[in-house]
């Protein structure tokens, strides 16, 4: 085929499904690589933050808390890069500029740079080795004839490697250790300068200042991370204690309310036992004494109940004078809620009939607390309240469903003093029922309670 012959056109046929998609960069293109690099850098930053917030632990490597293996390898890669760059340069400089024997130069350069790999997990031990090698190298070059522009006692490679080492030391060691490392560095450097005045170099001052700055910055970052971690731990403990206190307060509140229910039954027992000898003719003396004993025990139980209520009641709380509410007062509750501007629809089945008093009170409180949550966290949402019996007549079904809010809202309350999900759960648990709560797909919320009617209460 000649060069002027146009290439054959591709065969026409049905286009693959992916051809019709919007044009964009391929999955392996530069944009995808940038995204991966960005995600990787973010993970490294998060891991570094976790490393700063971790207290000193022997053998704990930097970024060791990262979930990705590649992120955990980053400190080793950086340390290896420093070693690979500084080791050969240090050997060449010691031999050519400081007249050090080749073998000794190799040993000193290895001791000055190789421990940087060890500094990832044990920075203080690495500092001892590196600093000792730096001092030995300074002594070995003490009498060397140096050109005027050659620094001493520290070479530029020593300064670079030492600052990298200070970064690891500052991120892992305590403040007292950092101050000690810095003072030893300065003391040795100024000591060399003091006893060798003819050198007249300021490299020791530069190393002292720069190492102090690195230690100061990394130490402050680490202490800030530790303080942040301790604050988060304290907040977690405080939240747990707050939840526990809320639960106890709610149980106490429920117990105070149920006092009226129990006191009513005990009063009925007392009246029946006291009036039995007058209502039933011909009772033997043994039966009269038995009824009298029952009435006395009931009165004593009422007295103990009042003492228990006094213990449960807070110091400034006064006894409630109104009777405890029930399902018959739900209609009044709905009307009061509607007056606040919340559209509420009530469906009260006609076959609800009489229910146990504890269940009656719990059903009312569940509706009350559910409506309070709607008013507080979903203002303006349409709400439906339904109370009915289950088909087998063994359960009382209480259902409160609200739609999405029409105004900005705050998160739904999960802890509070009598007006949250905690109170609902405790009331349902008390009666031996079940409670199902959760958000709806349209943004609303649902509260469904099943309270037993025929089974004995626990």
List keywords for this structure.
single chain; 458 residues; Heat Shock Protein 90; 3 domains; 5-stranded mixed beta sheet
Shape: elongated
Cα Rg: 40 Å
Tell me the number of structural domains: 3
H/E order of the elements? HHHHHHHHHHEHEEHEE
Helical stretch tally: 12
Q: What percent of residues adopt helix (DSSP H or I)?
A: 55-70%
Q: Tell me the strand percentage band.
A: 5-15%
Work out the number of β strands.
Answer: 5
Catalogue the unreliable spans: 1-27, 410-419
Distance between the termini: 95 Å
Strand order of the largest sheet: 1-2-3-5-4
In round numbers, the mean pLDDT is 79
- Return the structural class: alpha+beta
Taking the sheet with the most strands, its summary is: 5 strands, mixed
What does this protein structure show overall?
A five-stranded mixed β-sheet has the order 1-2-3-5-4, with helices on one face. It is elongated, with a radius of gyration of 40 Å. The model is unreliable at 1-27 and 410-419 (pLDDT under 50). 59% of the residues lie in helices and 7% in strands. Strand 2 (383-389) and strand 3 form a beta hairpin. It has 458 residues and is of the alpha+beta class. It has three domains: 43-235, no CATH class; 248-312; 327-452, 2-Layer Sandwich (Heat Shock Protein 90), CATH 3.30.565.
In short:
It contains twelve helices and five strands.
Please give the structural blueprint.
Elements: H1 30-52, H2 69-96, H3 102-113, H4 115-118, H5 123-140, H6 156-172, H7 175-195, H8 203-279, H9 285-312, H10 330-339, E1 344-348, H11 357-377, E2 383-389, E3 395-402, H12 421-431, E4 434-439, E5 445-452
Parallel strand pairs: 1-2
Antiparallel strand pairs: 2-3, 3-5, 4-5
Region (Disordered): 1-31
Protein name: histidine kinase
Pfam families: HATPase_c (PF02518), HisKA_3 (PF07730)
């Amino acid at each position: 085929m000649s060069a002027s012959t146009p290439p054959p056109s591709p065969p026409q046929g049905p286009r693959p499904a992916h051809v019709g998609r919007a044009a964009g960069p391929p999955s392996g293109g530069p944009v995808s690589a940038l995204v991966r690099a960005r995600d990787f850098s973010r993970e490294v930053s998060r891991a570094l933050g976790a490393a700063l917030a971790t207290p000193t632990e022997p053998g704990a490597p930097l970024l060791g808390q990262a979930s990705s293996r590649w992120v955990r390898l980053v400190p080793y890669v950086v340390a290896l890069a420093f070693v690979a760059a500084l080791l050969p340069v240090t050997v060449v400089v010691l031999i050519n500029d400081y007249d050090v024997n080749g073998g000794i130069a190799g040993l000193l350069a290895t001791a000055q740079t190789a421990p940087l790999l060890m500094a990832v997990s044990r920075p203080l031990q690495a500092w001892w080795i590196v600093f000792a090698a730096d001092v030995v190298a300074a002594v070995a070059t003490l009498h060397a004839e140096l050109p005027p522009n050659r620094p001493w006692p520290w070479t530029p490679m020593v300064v670079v490697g030492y600052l990298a080492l200070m970064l690891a030391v500052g991120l892992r060691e305590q403040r007292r250790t950092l101050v000690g490392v810095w003072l030893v560095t300065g003391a040795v450097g100024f000591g060399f300068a003091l006893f060798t005045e003819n050198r007249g170099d300021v490299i020791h001052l530069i190393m002292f200042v720069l190492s102090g700055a690195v230690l100061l910055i990394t130490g402050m970052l680490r202490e800030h991370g530790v303080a942040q971690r301790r604050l988060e731990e304290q907040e977690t403990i405080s939240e747990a204690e707050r939840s526990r206190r809320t639960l106890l307060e709610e149980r106490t509140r429920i117990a105070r309310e149920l006092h009226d229910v129990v006191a009513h039954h005990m009063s009925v027992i007392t009246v029946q036992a006291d009036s039995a000898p007058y209502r039933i003719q011909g009772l033997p003396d043994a039966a009269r004494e038995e009824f009298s004993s029952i009435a006395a025990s009931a009165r004593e139980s009422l007295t103990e109940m009042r003492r228990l209520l006094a213990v449960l009641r807070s110091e400034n709380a006064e006894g409630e004078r109104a009777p405890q509410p029930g399902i018959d007062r739900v209609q009044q509750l709905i009307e009061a809620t509607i007056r606040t501007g919340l559209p509420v629809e009530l469906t009260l089945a006609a076959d609800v009939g009489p229910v146990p008093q504890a269940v009656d009170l719990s059903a009312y409180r569940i509706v009350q607390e559910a409506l309070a949550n709607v008013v507080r966290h979903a203002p303006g949402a349409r709400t439906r309240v339904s109370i009915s019996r289950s088909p087998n007549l063994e359960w009382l079904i209480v259902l409160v469903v609200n739609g999405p809010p029409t105004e900005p809202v705050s998160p739904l309350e999960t802890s509070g003093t009598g007006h949250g999900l905690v109170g609902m759960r405790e009331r349902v648990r008390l009666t031996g029922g079940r409670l199902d709560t959760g958000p709806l797909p349209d943004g609303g919320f649902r509260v469904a309670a099943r309270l037993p009617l025929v089974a004995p209460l626990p």
